[in-house]
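Holo prediction. Input below; ligand is 3-methyl-2-oxobutanoic acid.
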Amino acid sequence: MSETKRKPGQKRTPAPKRRVVKIFDTTLRVGEQSPGMSLNLREKIEMARQLERMGVDIIEAGFAISSPGDFESVKTISGAVKDCVVASLARASEQDIDRAWEAVKEAKNPRIHLFLATSPLHMKYKLKMQPDEVYEQAVAMTRHAKRYTSDVEFSAEDSTRSDMDFLARVCEGVVAAGATTVNLPDTVGYTTPEECYLFFKDIREKAPSLDRITISTHCHNDLGLGVANTLAAIRAGVNQVECTVNGIGERAGNAAMEEIVMALYVRKDEYGAATNIDTTEITRSSNLLTSITGVKVQPNKAIVGENAFAHEAGIHQHGVLQKAETYEIMTPESVGLKKNNLVLGKHSGKHAFGERVRSLGYDLTKDELAEAFNKFKILADKKKSVYDKDIEAIVAKEAVQVPKTFTLKKFVATNGSDIDATATVTLVKDGKALKRKAEGDGPIDAAFKAIDLIIGRDFALDDFQLDAVTEGEDAQGDATVAIAGADGTRYSGRGLSTDIVEASIRAYINAVNKMYYAERA
Ligand code: KIV
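Structure of the complex:
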């Protein structure tokens, strides 16, 4: 939009000030609680670094007391992240809070996030406590957390189904005890936008001390209203929102960060609120999470779905070519979606490759870059055109590699309409080649069975997906495999190759290596 012409000497009219809504990202805590979303330490650190790069204000790194692995990851992220507040969740008990503090105390900006339910249903059946006891515990535990750090968040679990007078009493009590953020979650995704707006207006009136601190919301998506409820809360004065990348989370997930951020960005006129998020990092954050977890977003998902900026209908394509705004309310570039540029060929050198990787925003170590370059060379030999997407697929995987207990040496697979499929696979472990042959229902199944024989374990296959990284006959196959470990934990692996059997084998081995890494930790 062009600026109205100013007369010489006339001062520029200052842009109206917009309030800033803090983004509290809980991808690594509530997101990881969703089925099949277990991340290892390296993956969590990589994701945390990306969240920091993206500009989130607070990273909830985990629930320190829930397992030694969670404690370790909260602690490591606390040491690795400098520009965000790092929070650990804790129930409202001394033991939980002490453990949360142990995990976050080395962070530059640590936060303890404690919670206690306030709805009649939760108090009676889950906590088996009287409202007065809940009040006393909420206040006492906020005070306990406050002994460790000035930054304390209290969440009244199941707020939206709580009695308003009681909730207001708890809010006043925890603010007086030192809470600097009070979060009122819609824990079961029950509220509606109209109700949510009135809820926050009402609670601000009933508990006026909330206006002296940060008021937050945390909306689940059980009725598909997580983002709409979050926006209604912002309109009613909330200044922190809790959300996850790609909307992952328990059950139907949580409010999707990218949708909230872009709604505020595109509809500044409507909400008059901004965030500190660099929107051009949205696509990369979404892709990184997908690549780590192996869980893809649906193609029509707002902002980050494969089709979010695709125009299929001729009439739309024509309109967009004439003027993009006819059918585009935001540009693909504003969310960091790059044109699928032709980048490099088989004669490109290490330096050019390194430059390209850096310009795509990846910061690899020397060894990781060397490994990625090898893979690029192999690919460039097989594939006429190597695109940004190909490079990103290689690099994103390289950035979150776990130690390779097993590597693929070679394989032979046979298949046909009149013969049984067989595969002979040779893996290397501790310098020793291990070879087995198996039959299966197709060459991929046979190869997986041969790997099971080598490893001496029979893995349950939880998921298997095969996609193409780019278009074209020589596109790389991008395989995602999920296997279940002995305790039911799901490990996902990813493999790339222009040969889909090889891509699948590599994905399977990647999942097995992740399992070994987790079991050794
Ligand atoms: O859903 C919920 O209520 C929560 C709180 C602990 C913030 O996750």
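Residues 30, 115, 155, 157, 183, 185, 187, 218, 220 surround 3-methyl-2-oxobutanoic acid (CB under 6 Å). That is the main takeaway for now.
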